[in-house]
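Example record

One chain of 221 residues, shown exactly as stored in the release files.
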Amino acid sequence: MDAHRRRAWEALEIGPLWRLRPPPPDSSEPLTWTQLQQTVSGCKACVLADSRQQTVFGAGAQPAAWMLVGEAPDQHEESSGEPFVGLAGQLLDQMLAAIGVNRSTDVFVTNALKCATPANRDPLVEEVSRCAPYLKRQVDLVQPRLILVLGQFAAHSLLGTDASVVSLRGVVHTYASAAGPIPLVVTHHPAYLLRNLPEKAHSWSDLRLARRTFDTYPVTR
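Predicted structure tokens for this chain:
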């Protein structure tokens, strides 16, 4: 089409049906924070979608210096839509305060699973696997300087291992994020500590390790 005809059609607000339209969004592009929230909210990748009230995406600062990852929301968390509420959440707040970390301003908290399991049973391997891409993208978007893993199934998701918390705690691991390596420390879940009070001493040691690591690990981004 020549320039004269194009100008005439544009003046009359008409044009050929084959005029090029903007290309659709590239589905290969990583999800934004809002897109990720929407995707998680409507996820039906496993059977937990059939029994949940709502998904529990996570809460806190974004980006955040610290990222805490639990195992799966319980019924209280599912009802509220927020992770780590109730007694376990109160204990977590106390644990963080003891090492000078403010949950409201310094931390993003989430779970390896975004749906509660029936009767709070342990997550299945398939369920952890189906949620793993969501967690991975959360880490990339939050860009934490340190990840504190709370419980065995969260460790399985982030470290790709089936090892126990006992064998993983006490050392600094590394998580390979899109922006570079992130130090990762594993400890017991607060709900486990409420049932096993002597283990609090071990978790206190892990928290001090996490604090020392955070304070000394070079900031690369």
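Notes: The chain has one domain: 45-216.
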